[in-house]
Design brief:
heterodimer; A: Rossmann fold; Alpha-Beta Plaits; 2 domains; 12 helices; 29% strand; globular; B: mainly alpha; two-stranded antiparallel sheet; binds adenosine-5'-triphosphate; binds magnesium ion; transmembrane helix (chain B); membrane (chain B); ABC-2_transporter-like (chain B)
Chain lengths: 336, 261
């Protein structure tokens, strides 16, 4: 059975623009100009119990909007959503008992009261019995190492400490389905690893289904077999992460640092015989070539480039997942 | 039953938090009492020289004011939604509310309660008893029950109006000054409505029925039989307005757009 079933889901936001001048303001009173933005554009998605799905995409792709519709916060403009067998916004109060939600950008806990008081209130809100709480939460608290934080008010916690408490709070009722919107945003590597370990653990132990968004692909690599890639509200890839890596480029990447300014047309001109994509690097006069081909091609390209332009540094890398995703964002999926 | 227990859990937590900031609490209580005292003095000064205002004498007007304070205190203890737009819509706090298994309006009520405002009830009762004894009013066995009904009706009317105003934010989150304005209009209900002109009287009775929070129900205890019809409409108006507000709120929640990041 599918835990999440989404068919043709769409969300549009209307934004009003005001006309200029007094006359414009007067006309605005009667007819207002508005633009419709399709934040989520007819997506379909099916998630089975126990899956860990990475939901990724650029800023503004529509990830948070999707999660808000799946959790019953926003009403969809069109489409069908069934999550845990229910329609999220129709039976909201009953539905939310069966899910856990964490928004990395926003606190779910009470700001001024001690963490354990927040937990105690949530325990009542979710009608969790003492026995359930004891067995389940003890474990959660231990794994997330938040025992020493429990008597502190949330406002006195660091971001990483707070986020671990947020996660624990979302799990008080041990929900079978967990939505995490950027749970690792702004955290250091150690805390990230702790959180990843913890998510793996609850997924293994309770078969908890997890849908998470992140901008850190290491999260996805560590946790998710499946990724869903969203671009301007549309799903452009839904499948295994390793397939994505395989289908895209098994090529190499060469970072050239030139001694003088060089422009893209010039580079494309000299390398037109090779299957190469040029991109401006992070540093001045740095250009990155992604080549889809044999080692031989790579060395030929390097010599051609060096023949035409003086360089100060050159580096040869394998294409990272990060880079693959970036390429997909920039050019759309065509190899896959 | 569940809602009762959750309410008490939140109230207990609220008191516990307030107690732990003892100095703040003391300062606030003192300033609250001062505020009430200033209010009372103001009334005595303003009405000190008037002996009759459109057929109402000074003590009657003070009595109405005292009555008004009681439903108003209940309203301000539980319906702190004047900053709903800022706090819940613009900042997106509504997201969190909507992920919890309790009706969203109820959650906001219990999250934002300010129980110390209940002191207004005491002030109101003191004023009423003072004015009542000056007027030589006697207490009947049924008076406390009627009083309770009237107070609840009045608080519901206040709540209904302000919930409707808050719910508007679901459709448009642009800033308006309508909330503070409404607090001002609410104050007109403290005075006998027949001192105003026809239009204002109509508005205060049927559109923004603040008269049902002050004059009309108080008229019952003052034995002003000509107003009894209105007096007994108080609980009805309360239920009607709160129901309208409830449906408007529910419709609004469906329109909630969230805060873009
Ligand atoms: N309440 C809103 N009103 C108007 N537009 C909105 C609103 N919320 C989101 N949007 C728009 O919808 C689009 C998708 O936003 P969304 O927050 O879902 O993106 P996202 O994928 O979560 O991005 P990010 O990675 O930055 O969190 C954006 O263009 C955003 O501006
Ligand atoms: Mg987002």
């Amino acid at each position: 059975m599918n835990v999440i079933e989404v068919e043709g889901l769409r969300k549009e936001f209307k934004s009003y623009s005001s006309r200029s001048g007094l006359k414009g303001a007067f006309r605005d009173l009667f007819t207002r100009n508005y633009k419709t933005l399709r934040a989520v554009d007819d997506i379909s998605l099916h998630v089975k119990q126990g899956e860990m799905v990475g939901y990724i995409g650029e800023n503004g792709a529509g990830k948070s909007t999707t999660i808000k519709m799946l959790t019953g916060i926003l009403t969809p403009t069109a489409g069908n959503v069934t999550v845990n067998g229910m329609n999220p916004h129709k039976e909201r109060e009953k539905f939310v008992r069966t899910i856990g939600v964490v928004f990395g950008q926003r606190s779910q806990l009470w700001w001024d009261i001690a963490v354990q008081e927040s937990f105690r209130l949530l325990k009542k809100v979710y009608k969790v019995s003492d026995e359930e709480y004891e067995t389940h939460m003890k474990e959660v608290i231990r794994t997330l190492e938040i025992e020493p934080l429990l008597d502190k008010p949330v406002r006195k916690l660091s971001l990483g400490q707070r986020m671990r408490c947020e996660l624990a709070a979302a799990l008080i009722h041990n929900p079978p389905l967990l939505f995490l919107d950027e749970p690792t945003i702004g955290l250091d590597v150690l805390v990230k690893m702790k959180i990843r370990g913890f998510l793996k653990e609850i997924n293994r132990k309770y078969k908890t289904t997890i849908l998470l968004t992140t901008h850190d692909l290491a999260d996805i690599e560590a946790l998710c077999d499946r990724v869903v890639l969203l671009d301007e509200g549309k799903i452009i890839y839904d499948g295994r992460l390793d397939e994505l890596q395989k289908n895209w480029v098994e090529g190499k990447q060469v970072h050239f640092e030139f001694q003088h300014p060089v422009d893209k047309p010039a580079l494309e001109e000299i390398s037109r015989e090779y299957p190469v994509i040029w991109r401006q690097g992070e540093r001045v006069n740095q250009w990155v070539a992604t080549i889809d081909g044999e080692d031989d091609t790579v060395s030929k390209l390097m010599s051609v480039v060096m023949l035409h332009h003086a360089i100060s540094d050159v580096k040869l890398n394998k294409v990272s997942t990060e880079e693959i995703i970036r390429n997909i964002y920039e050019e759309g999926i065509k190899h896959g | 039953m569940y809602y009762f227990s959750i309410f008490f859990q939140y109230a207990a937590q609220y008191l516990k938090t307030r107690m732990s900031y003892r100095e703040d609490l003391v300062v606030e209580l003192i300033s609250d009492l001062l505020f009430q005292a200033v209010n009372l003095i103001f009334i005595l000064v303003v009405f000190g020289h008037t002996t009759l205002l459109n057929g109402w004498n000074r003590e009657e007007i003070i009595f109405i004011y005292g009555f008004f304070l009681v439903p108003y205190a209940i309203f301000s203890s539980f319906f702190n939604i004047w900053d709903f737009n800022e706090r819940y819509i613009v900042k997106g706090e509504m997201d969190r509310i909507l992920t919890r298994p309790i009706h969203s309006l109820f959650q906001i009520i219990i999250e934002r309660m300010e129980l110390e405002s209940m002191f207004g009830v005491v002030t109101g009762l003191v004023i009423m008893f003072y004015a009542g004894s000056q007027l030589g009013l006697t207490l009947h066995w049924y008076d406390p029950f009627v009083f309770l009904l009237m107070v609840i009706g009045g608080a519901f009317i206040y709540a209904g109006i302000f919930i409707c105003l808050a719910a508007i934010s679901f459709w448009s989150d642009s800033k308006t000054d309508i909330m503070p304005m409404m607090y001002n209009i609410g104050n007109y209900g403290r005075y006998p409505v027949d001192i105003y002109n026809q239009v204002i009287r109509f508005v205060l009775t049927w559109i923004l029925p603040f008269a049902f929070v002050g004059v009309y129900p108080a008229a019952f205890f003052l034995g002003r039989t000509e107003w009894y019809g209105y007096a007994f409409l108080t609980p009805v108006m309360g239920v009607v307005f709160l129901t309208i507000a409830y449906f408007m709120w529910n419709a609004g929640v469906k329109k909630y757009r969230g805060a873009g990041n």
